[in-house]
Each structure stands twice: as C-alpha cells, then as structure tokens.
Amino acid sequence: MKNIWKMLMIVSLGLFLAACSLEGLDQYSPDQIVAKAVEDNENITGFYMKTDFDVYKGEEKIEDSIIEQWTDKENKRIKSMSETAKGEVSMSVNDGEKIIHYSSLQGDAVVMDTLEENDQFIGQSPKDDLKFTLENLRETHNIEVVGDEEINGFDTYHIKATPKKKDSLMGEEEYWISKNNWFIIKSISKSDDLTIEYTVTELEINPVFDEETFTIDLPEGVELKTMEEMDPAEKTTLAELAENYGQPILTSKNYDLVSAEKFYMEGFDRTEATQEFMKDGYKQFILTSFEAPEEELSVGLEEKEEIEVRGVKAIYMNDVIQNLVWDEDGMSYSLLSMNPELTKEDLIEIAENLEFVEK
Q1: Residues 6-53: pLDDT tens digits?
Q2: Spatial separation of the C-alpha atoms in residues 200 and 290, rounded to whole Å
Q3: Whole-model pTM?
C-alpha cells in the first residue's frame, strides 16, 4: 500500500502525541480536548512504545504487525522495529549522525547521513503534522466525548469523530487518549471498507537509554549500501519497454520525455517503468507503468475520487500528492504531478492525450 499516508499519520499520532496534563476532562469541550492533545509537554524527553497495528478489509485482516519504537528527543535519536504476522521484518535507526534502514523484503540495508533540520525533505515537525490533521478533523467531523475507558491498563478518554457529511472521504475516527500523558493509546480509523486499528500495549515515559539502544543488529550476510548503490533503476527506451511487456505502452508526445527507466520490484515480483516529462524547462509529471495485478484497481488508504479516464475507471488523488491511477489493456498506469500548477483537469487532459508506442 503506497503512501499509506493516513496509516503513517495514525502511527505518528501514537508515537509522538503528548500534551499538558488536565485535572478533568469534563471542563473542556471536545474541540478543546483535541486542541489540548497537540500541545507540547516539555517533561517528556523520550519514550519506549510497543504497539499492535492491524488493517482490515471488510472482515478480513490484511495487515498484522507489531511495532516497537525508542525515541530520545533530547539527542534527536530514534529507532523503530516492526514485524508482520508473516515474519516480514523492518528496522530503522537514526543515531543522530546517520540513518540505517533494513527491510527483509528488500534483503539489503541502506545507510544515509542524517538530514539537517532545515532540509526540505524534513518537512513539518510531528507536532505540526498532528495539529494540522486534528484541526482538519474538527472541520469535517462532529467530535464527541464517549467517556472514560481502560485500555491495556491505561486510563483513557474515549473520543469519537463522526463525519458531518455522508459522502466524506474520511470515515469514522475513534481515539483513546491517556489521561496521564496524552498519548494516543488506541485509534480506529475507517475509510470505505478499510479499518485501521492501532493499539499501544506497552509505554514507558522518559526511560534510561544506553549506547546500545540506538543500534540495530543486521542479519548475517546483509551488507550496508548507500542510496546510490541501492538504486535499482536502469535506463531504457520506450521500444524496449514495449518489448519487455509484450504489448504497446502509453507515452506523451505533447511533453518532452527526459528519461525512461525500469526497475524490478522484488517485493511485488514485477518490473516497473517510469517516464519523466518536462515542458518549458520545468518538470511536469512522471508516468509509471507495470503489468496490472489480478486484483481490482486499488490505491490503499489514500483519499480518493473515482472518475473515468480513457473510457475506463480511474482514481484521482490530491491528498499528499496529486496522482491519477488507472488500468488499461493489462497495464497499470500512474500519472504523478511534479508541477504544483497542474490541476485535476490538466492531469485528465494529459492522460486522454497519451498515445501507444509499439515495440
């Protein structure tokens, strides 16, 4: 599931949310409670947390993970480890100087320098992200206090958010907030037929960390590689792509094609291709393609709108990114905007004007 942005945000809610203590919940309105939940608590300098993370499609559980995180806010160090029910393992650590990430699906570990605080890829702080998310929630949902509940030994306030409109993209949200430190102890998020459940099972505030805490033991035989060494992409041509897929492939002749690359996605057992286009000296969009999977077109947990493009069902997204996705003639296509001035109508027009290239 790509950009499981909403999923990651829910994880972030639990991993980073802490606010000032209150004497009692009943003295605040639901809106004030949500606002209080994003205030900084200067007394929290670090924590250890263990969580269960489950995703359901209808009644079927499709994701089942256990996540552990160690956070040292004073020294800007963080480590996380997760394991799915299928045994898939992911580990990452930021020791303040370098970042190491390992995934059993990839089989390799990548190392990179820690980004500077003013680096453009850092973005907003977790607090700012959370404040933005919760403020948006208040605009689109009616928030009510359900009551006091105990969750895994934690005394919590239970808050429920119901969409104000029946056709709201974000469904029902529920949060159980610790009375002691304002961490989100449990959350349930519903969108269409997907349900995400996040539950804290262990939480230690301001633990004592040693130098071994922010290290990871990589499996035997795993080699550390740089980002450049991990890049699986190789240059290609449209004719080669058409030959590889055994059928014509879509491209744009109204924009300048500046690069075409292909790479093998081991975790999905497929070869993906990307075409990058420019116009008037500026990047405009990236067209990604791969052989369509057997299951129905899906984009995970993105906020989405179903439309029709090129005579077939398509999904338009404009949450974190602006993207247009559709399946056509056995291929899956994704049109990702790189120009903030492009509109939804522009992307649709670009897609409608794509042409097939033969091998």
Answers
A1: 443 434 333 333 333 333 444 555 555 555 555 545 578 889 999 999
A2: 38
A3: 0.61
Q: Which domains does the chain have, with CATH numbers?
A: 5-228 (2.50.20.10), 232-357 (3.40.1000)
Pull the structure tokens for residue 225: 């590689």
Separation between Cα atoms, residue 300 and residue 194, nearest integer Å = 9
Token pair in block for residue 230: 């991990």
Give, as one character, the DSSP assignment of residue 240.
H
Angstrom distances, CA of residue 314 to CA of 212, 296, 299: 49, 11, 11
Residue-wise pLDDT tens digits, 119-164: 333 334 444 444 565 666 777 888 888 989 999 999 998 988 898 8
Distance CA 204, CA 210 (A): 15
* Distance, CA of 244 to CA of 242 (rounded, Å): 6
Three-state DSSP class for residue 172:
coil
